[in-house]
Amino acid sequence: MRKFLTFVSAAFITGSMFAGGLVTNTNQSASWVRLPSRNASLETDAVYYNPAGLMKLDNGFHFSLNNQAIFQTRTIESTYPYLNSGTYEGKVTAPLFPSVYAAYKLDKLAFSVGFMPIGGGGGATYENGLPSFEMSQSDLVPALAASMGASAYDMDVYFKGSSIFFGLQGAISYKINDWISIAAGARYVTAKNTYEGYLRDVQVTTGAGVMDASVIMAGVAGQATTAATSTSNIITAVPSAAGLTLAQAEAATIINNAQRQALEGALAGFGSPTTITIAQADAVFKGAARVYGNKSTLLADQEVEAEQTGTGITPFFSINLTLFENLNLAVKYEMATKLELENKTAKDLTTGFVNEDPEMPITRFPNGAKIRSDMPAMLAVGAELRLSESFKVNAGGNYFFDKTADYGHFIDETPQNSTDYPVHIDNSEIISENGMSLQGGLEINLSDNFLVSAGYVYANQGVNSMYQSDLTYGLATHTIGAGGAFSITDNIKINFGGSYTKYMDDSKNVDHFLGSLNLLPKETYKKTAMIFGLGLDLSFLAIT
User: Fold this and answer.
1) What are the residue ranges of helices labelled H in 206-245?
2) Which of 408, 403, 347 lies closest to 15 in space, CA to CA?
3) Cα 517–chain centre separation
4) Integer Cα distance of 131 and 85 in angstroms
5) Is the peptide bond before 422 cis (omega within 30 degrees of 0)?
6) H or E segment to which residue 455 belongs
């Protein structure tokens, strides 16, 4: 199987789905969908975006209920020549992406709680698998073309993954004076990833018809075992024959010509010279029996049914400044969230064997294994400038401290002659620079009870090519959002909007060996996403 970097904590659907960081969702309200620049919000969604800004609300109770329906398409294109199709498409669907906020505001204090999908948020389905799952199977055609007339392969593969990191937070805000307020709080994060799928019916079309690939490999392993039995018996009967070639053993009448021809033919079939000693031939045959036996196992029907769960705490701090009556500035800092996810695996996929030892299988989700899947620290800044009673502009940015987090990457197959599995990869090796996003937007009141808004976000994930794989990849994004809000009364408002995210394509050449030749096929990674948001804001003001 090909070696590749695996983000095991959330393969297939890992991380932020949209215009946030690698693993952090920042689309946390319907107001964000219509105006994706909310870091200086002074409305109820400030519970998440700007907790200190809650001190700008009127005294009383404020409540916001939001949902987003999110649809994402992920496409991987491979130039590997032996694949049946070089295009693989995954659909991510999240019809429910809820966020709920509540705040109780007093003259000097405000108390708030919030609930949101802070990471992940959907399930990805790959009806036809991924290139990394199919390349080794496609190699059967060139590998068996000469010996068996192989001309095609077929397989039945399906994988689905879901990931959701829910956040439940609470905070206290305090008004120092009319132009400065502060807030502090913490978020409790619960993470859950689930995986299900199968790889079945790997078949090869040969000159003799369609054959089960696992049976073919088992047959080759049987041939190697038979040859190894012969060489072992020779050495047992005549120990000194271990250092002789087959020709020398025949000359010494230790074996006959038929035995020599059979064993030399077996050596040639396994790509070894016929002039090696019988002891060396014995090692070749035993090694081939293990390798082809393992290949038979890998090509047999397999299923996966696993989940990963864990929890963590995110402390955060916020400050809001009103330098002028019409200019509001906000800064929020979220500390890193340490998350350690534990596998609970009912069925697992075998991806290889340590040093080809059949007693040491490498599996995708080892039961009970614990894997880090941190959320990075984040600095968010924002500004809101009201140019008139009916027109305001917003701007802001987010900076994600990705390099100092632990995202749980590792090389999923162990190098030969190593028992160190898995091989952990630090974020600093796969991330060239910390991720960031820049956003801006405007809002126009068309009447006393109706407004429209629009905005734009650019996000750069900062990863290098070592991070990218068909299982998980980070791409720069361009997002546009637009919509409006309708105030039914002074205390009831409906927010609605839609947004579209275009991910910038990225490509890399991946390692994949056919025999000793690394063919370096090119993979291209693509995504698009659409969001539709709807929210209800309610205010119950204090009676003065």
Assistant:
1) 213-237
2) 408
3) 29
4) 9
5) yes
6) strand 450-460
As a residue count, the chain comes to: 544
Contact 219, 36 (CB under 8 A): no
Strand pairing partners for 454? 442, 482
Taking a C-beta distance cutoff of 8 angstroms, is the pair 367, 343 a contact? yes
Question: Of the candidates 457, 463, 436, 308, which has an alpha carbon nearest to the alpha carbon of residue 377?
Answer: 436
Query: Which residues is 397 bridged to in the sheet?
Result: 381, 438
Lookup: tokens for 101: 């906020």
What are the DSSP calls for 305-328, one per residue? EEEEEEEEEEEEEEEEEEEETTEE
Task: Read off the pLDDT of residues 38-87 as tens digits, 9 standing for 90 and up.
Answer: 999 999 999 999 999 999 999 999 999 999 999 999 999 999 999 998 89
pLDDT, tens only, 170-187: 999 999 999 999 999 999
**Closest alpha carbon to 6 in 485, 311, 430, 400:** 430
Helix, strand, or coil here: 470?
A: coil
3-state SS track over 12-31: CCCCCCCCCCCCCCCCCCHH
For 107, list phi and psi in degrees, rounded to 5: -60, -45
3-state SS class at 35 = coil
